[in-house]
Amino acid sequence: MMRAKKAFGVSPIEEPPAPLRTKSALGPRGRAWPGVAREGGPVDVFVRDHVRDSLGVSWGFSREVEEGGFLFGEVHRDADAPSRWLVVVTEVIRAEHTEEAPDALVFSPESFASMRRHAEAKRDGASILGWFHTHLVAGPEDRGLSVVDRDLHFSTFRRPWQVAALVCVDPARDPEGREVSFFARQGDFLVPCAVEVLA
Fold first, then answer.
1. What pLDDT is recorded for position 73?
2. Which superkingdom, per the lineage (predicted)?
3. Do residues 142 and 109 lie in contact, with contact meaning Cβ atoms separated by under 8 Å?
């Protein structure tokens, strides 16, 4: 008797669940980050002190075109509130192969390929937490994500814990005039995240 051949099939691979962790177990708190949210949606963001310095002060961002890159680090479930995510940004890298303009940033397929190569080379288990980009701002009304930004996030960064960081660069006051905000999905919206700095 001949056995019927099984049809070829593809099944999704389940990601292991994020480990439970308390906020206090993430480490000691660093310097305050003025202007960032202390309360927010379903994701709390923790950034290492050197990441805060890179995005908030030391990186020389263009004052003429938008720039961006990618965020790497750890993902945890909040042991005290398991419906919440805790993400720890341990590294931020600039994107390569982008198209930059005064009011837009476009990541190319090569940008994402370069990011994946970076992630694979690290071999430390760091997750791709999301992305960041700059806006050149003139006033308070310019300090939010655009429709294009939201579309990019929802189509590309699909995990519920992935975040978008917006670095608002006031060209006349840079770097003292920079504001950094993080956003995560909540249903069909991107909402501000609570942010703390870790030493």
1. 94
2. Bacteria
3. no
CATH of the domain at 145: 3.40.140.10
Q: Which residues pair with 43 in a beta bridge?
A: 85
**Residue 80 CB contacts under 8 Å (≥ 6 apart), including other chains:** 22, 23
Q: Report the alpha-carbon distance of residue 91 to residue 177 in Å, rounded.
A: 23
**Do the beta carbons of residue 145 and residue 164 sit within 8 Å?**
yes
Residue 129 lies in a domain: yes
Q: What is the pLDDT of residue 1?
A: 56
3-state secondary structure of 67: coil
C-alpha distances out from residue 150 to 86, 107, 157, 197, Å: 21, 14, 10, 25
CA angle 151, 55, 168 (to 5 degrees): 55
Report if residue 12 sits inside a domain.
Answer: no
Of the candidates 126, 100, 128, 96, the one whose C-alpha atom is nearest the C-alpha of residue 113 is: 96
Residue 25, domain member (yes or no): no
Q: What range does the domain containing 82 cover?
A: 35-198
Residue range 51-72, pLDDT digits in tens:
999 999 999 999 999 999 999 9
Whether residue 3 lies inside any domain: the answer is: no
Residue range 142-170: mean pLDDT, rounded: 91
Residues paired with residue 133 on neighbouring β-strands, in sequence order? 68, 166
Count structural domains, the chain.
Answer: 1
Q: What is the pTM of this model?
A: 0.87
